[in-house]
Amino acid sequence: MRHFPSCQVLNIRDNLYMVDCGEGAQVQFRRMRLKFSRLNHIFISHLHGDHCFGLPGLLSTMALHGITGSVTVHTFQEGVEQFKRFMDFFCPVTPFELRFNAILPEQGIVYEDNGITVSTIPLSHRVPATGFLFAEKQKLRHIVPEAVSRWCVPHHFMNSLRQGADFVTPEGLTIPNAELTKAPDPSHSYAYCSDTSYSKRVIKAVEGVDWLYHESTYAEDNAPLARKRGHSTAREAATVAHEAGVRHLILGHYSKRYHDNSILLKEAQDIFPNTMLSDEGRIFDLNKE
Question: Which pLDDT belongs to residue 288?
Answer without folding.
Answer: 78
